[in-house]
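Table S4 entry, MFS transporter, DHA1 family, purine base/nucleoside efflux pump.
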Amino acid sequence: MKKPNMMLLVFSAMSFVLAMTAFVFSGILDKVAVSLGISVADSGLLNTMYSYGAAFGVPITLILFRKVERSRMLKLMLFATILTTFALIYAQNFVQLLIVRLLMGISANSYGVLAISTILALSPKDRQGRSLAFYIMGSSLALVIGIPLTRALSAVLDWRSIFWILNAMMLLSLVYFLKYLPKADHEATKLDLKNELQFFKDGKTLLLLAYTLTMFMGYHAFYTYATPYLLLLFPSIEPLMSLILVGLGLASFTGNLIGGHVSDAIGYAKSMMLGAVLQTAAMLLILVFQPSKWLSVLFIIGWLMSAWFTGLQLNTGIAQVTENKSSFMLSINGSLIQLGGAFGASLAAVVINLTGIQSIVFVTLLTSLALILIQVVSMRKYP
């Protein structure tokens, strides 16, 4: 690979940009609602449609374009994301915005799956974890500085101007990829649907997918409501909430970075077990010390760090189990992340209505225990 460090840097920058396109509305929903003349609840559908596009559209897209060489497909999906961003900027009404967000969810996340597959293919096996961690670092930085910065910029720029900036960065990355991204072996990267379906008969792969779905159910059950959880239990914490959110962002960044090094050192399977144990321990501590304001904040930060430590291992595991020959399985893994998040947030909403927000800890604690069980079975049956 020509200029490998620069290539990885561009991929990481694109991870930041695409995370911003996914999350940017979350930070400015109230302002988007005002500009469109709709309710905040309705404006939240812009994120929902993006998630549906990611969950259902990506596997279908990879099947439909299965004969296209991987690096070419990556550039096509990036170009499609640029076009959908232009369409978003010029959309005339809310219905058009929803349709465009659905399409953006498909193209941006198809690019994301292909980017992960490409990075892993271009990295030596003993550095795959660190390379993937560096790539994911872009999305964690979006949480640390991107979303707060967007909120600040929204005082002087409208949301369409923010997307203009993101689109300019995507265009620069596309130009770089067109010039420097090497072509992959076409036979090694094209999608053979018959062979892909064989992976669903592989117990190790199925357990990895079960781990993904379960983990992100628990993750989103708690993280979606982490801010109101803290504010309801400790109203006096509100003036410091911005600093706490930065701390959570730094926790995700640090957990991801450590996860890459640990994965390369001990392998993804042991790292997944370690991550499940750490998440369980953190949730137990959150439960036990629920009456304590600062210990609750500390252990939530620790839990988020362990979750991001673990999340990295899932794509690494899928890539290594399939010998990096299945972008389709990576897309299925990505779809389960989205579906797990939707299921988890919905389950948490039911629990909150029935028993109160403090009970969401139990949902994530149970899913963390389930992760340990899944990984024990996986490591014993498929050593």
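The chain has two domains: 4-190, 195-381.
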